[in-house]
Write a structure and sequence with these properties.
The complex is a heterodimer.
Chain A lengths: L1 H27 L2 H4 L4 E8 L10 E4 L2 E12 L4 E9 L9 E6 L6 E6 L12 E2 L1 E3 L4 H19 L1
Chain B lengths: L1 H39 L2 H5 L1 H38 L8 H39 L2 H7 L4 H40 L3 H11 L2 H29 L4 H35 L2
Classes of the chains: A alpha/beta, B mainly alpha.
Chain lengths: 156, 272
């Protein structure tokens, strides 16, 4: 008799524990959105990736369509090769261009894809040809300062 | 004459220090052997699972209330404090990330582990210690029942199974508390709270690592608790001392292990 009441409580405890884990995985960690989906990989070369990190989102028209899966350095062209993991639901033309953008002024960096007009679609292992590097704030400021200085000289 | 006395005092002091140190090492070795013995003799605990379930009732179910209530309050305090800091930088929407990451990665496993050590660990030690003091353990041995298989292993496995569940409950409850204070009370945008949280909490990197932490803490706490109980001198004083040692040692073990695990888990990812 005693045993069965204990069993109910332990069962409730285990169920509550798993419910907590499920809540963490689904509602907090958002397991459902990406990890089960099929993906295909596409590469792109960038002259400078700024602060782009692995797992940064890849967005097209503001919608997250994939994540950065790998960042490595190409020792022949001295450029960065970034591998994108794109959701298989989303197809892009072969002449799609990739830009490294920043959300907000100082926010995290992500990759923006802009679809081209080619009829042939990208498939796994392809490389994007049109890329635009990250804007490095220091370079921007120094450019601005040099321009100002040059203007000042012309004025005199 | 006086010189001889100081030499004698020095020598006896050194001897005492050495004896204490050797005793500690000896005890550690016994604890390690005890751990292996428990693992090897846990067949009964897993085959007759009702034994383990009975212990889970005492270790897990009875700890649930304190875990749920403290989780709720910790989450609420995190939201209040986090909001205060974040709104200075105009990023109060990041409150969800702050609450979720700090709970799932650190506070959930660590605070739940500390509470579990003081709520369930001390009870396990006291119970086993009293069984030994009242010679129930010796009686079992007389009846050719292995007390480790019958008494210690079920408690050990009950603790190891309960701890991750309690830590998950703590984190979930804490996030709910953060939601209550952040969204309902302060008025952070609900959509931003959840979506930012979901965008930055990774299931494998954050949640799974938190679960691994809590499993490790569960093993450490229950190991210390059953060992202190089994090793306690069979007197009232001995049992009370062992109970205190369980809480102190397992709290220190949790914090030290947490540092090691955090260094292993989270610095590798961010160093890239």
């Amino acid at each position: 008799m005693k045993r069965s009441t204990i069993d109910i409580w332990v069962g409730a405890f285990v169920a509550a524990g798993f419910a907590g884990l499920l809540f963490l995985a689904l509602k907090v960690g958002n397991l459902a959105s990406f990890s089960t989906a099929q993906t295909y990989q596409v590469e792109a070369k960038f002259a400078n990736i700024g602060g782009l990190k692995v797992r940064a989102p890849i967005k097209s028209a503001g919608v997250v369509v994939g994540r950065v899966s790998e960042v490595r350095f190409d020792n022949e062209s001295y450029e960065a090769i970034v591998t994108f993991n794109l959701d298989a639901h989303y197809k892009f033309p072969r002449d799609t261009s990739a830009k490294i953008l920043t959300s907000g002024l100082l926010g995290e960096q992500y990759v923006g894809l802009e679809a081209g007009g080619d009829g042939v679609m990208l498939k796994g292992g392809d490389r994007l040809r049109l890329t635009q590097s990250a804007v490095v704030l220091e370079n921007l400021i120094s450019q601005f300062l040099f321009n100002k200085a040059a203007e000042g000289k012309d004025g005199k | 004459m006086a010189e001889q006395e100081t030499v004698g005092a020095l020598r006896s002091g050194l001897e005492k220090l050495g004896r204490g140190f050797t005793a500690k090492i000896w005890r550690l070795g016994f604890a390690a052997r005890f751990f292996v013995y428990v693992l090897l003799h846990s067949g009964t605990a897993l085959r007759r699972f009702s034994l383990t379930i009975r212990e889970m009732y005492f270790a897990g179910v009875h700890s649930m209330i304190i875990i749920l209530v403290s989780g709720l309050f910790v989450g609420m305090v995190l939201a209040l404090q986090g909001y205060d800091t974040l709104q200075r930088y105009g990023s109060s929407e990041a409150l969800g990330i702050l609450v979720a990451l700090s709970l799932v990665r650190e506070l959930g496993p660590v605070v739940a582990g500390l509470l579990f050590a003081s709520r369930a660990g001390s009870a396990i030690t006291a119970e086993i210690g009293l069984m030994k003091a009242t010679e129930q353990i010796a009686a079992m041995e007389m009846m050719a029942v292995d007390p480790i298989a019958r008494v210690v292993a079920p408690r050990f496995w009950a603790g190891v199974i309960s701890m991750p569940l309690l830590a998950a409950l703590f984190s979930a409850m804490g996030i709910f508390g953060g939601y209550l204070v952040g969204v309902q009370l302060i008025g952070v945008d609900e959509g931003a709270f959840w979506s930012q949280m979901q965008a930055s909490v990774d299931v494998r990197e954050d949640i799974l690592n938190g679960v691994i932490k809590s499993v490790v803490f569960g093993v450490a706490v229950t190991w210390i608790a059953v060992f202190e109980g089994y090793d306690a001198p069979p007197t009232a004083e001995g049992v009370s001392g062992a109970t205190t040692r369980t809480v102190v040692t397992s709290s220190l073990a949790i914090l030290a292990l947490d540092f090691v695990l955090t260094a292993l888990m989270f610095t590798g990812g961010t160093a890239k």
